[in-house]
Structure prediction request, 244 residues.
Amino acid sequence: MDGFTDKTAVITGAAAGIGLATARMLFDFGAHVMLIDIDESMAEAAAEAIDPSGDAAKAYRCDISDEDSVRRVFCDIREKSISVDILVNNAAIWRTGNAEFIYSDSYNWKRKIGVNILGTMYCTHAALRGMTDRGWGRIINVSSVAGIYGIPYMSDYSMTKGAIDSFTKAVAKEVAAFGVTVNAVAPGNVNSDGSKEHEREDLSFIPHSCRPEDVNELICFLASNQAGYITGQVIQIDGCRKKV
Prediction:
């Protein structure tokens, strides 16, 4: 894969899991990476681990559900004369408050809508104008099979990821003529830490959970020059999921 030299990538939820794996790989391919996370100390530690010099990996604390917080971060990046060429919308809430819908509460609905949907929209809005002006950009949204199949006891999360899929397809059509691609990846159950606790052999025909590297390699491909004719797609990475 090529096309990353002199490019800057912003990755949300970058302090761990898929976000961190993606930031590392983009850096290895030659991109400058901006790690955005609500946990500032974890983001700073991740950026230092990727690039101890601090020249090509920087951390920003940001609550992406807060539009003003997103604007401040992107303004700070622009003020340093840095263009955002690649945006990976990875940050999301999913484990909090899962329950049968009838027993769930609107507090958790609103949190997931704020981060998963509005956060993705705020970051995309902040990055997109610069991409269209320059005639090149890559936006990759991290969705989920929950948005495709609907996962019981996760109806609010499933709804937010279904919204991301529709948002991806709609925005892709608006900006395709400007050299900007917008795609989504939809992982199945992701074993972020490699522990047996998060390993599921029963959810897919490939008998193990999805690993972060299964996802970040596709994200990096979609961010590369080689994927310039792929846009408006939601690509499942789920080992041929059994749907439930």
